[in-house]
Amino acid sequence: MPLPDTMFCAQQIHIPPELPDILKQFTKAAIRTQPADLLQWSAGYFLALSQGDPLPIKDRVEMPVATQKTDTGLTQGLLKVLHKQCSHKPEVTIKDLEHKWRTLCLPMDRLHALLQLDPCGDSIEWIKFLALGCSMLGGSLNSAMKHFCEILTADPEGGPARIPFDTFAYIYRYLSRLDSDVKVLDTESYLNNLKESVKNGMIGLSDFYVPQRNTLKP
Question: CA distances (Å), 118 to each of 29, 111, 128, 183, in order?
Answer without folding.
Answer: 33, 12, 9, 18
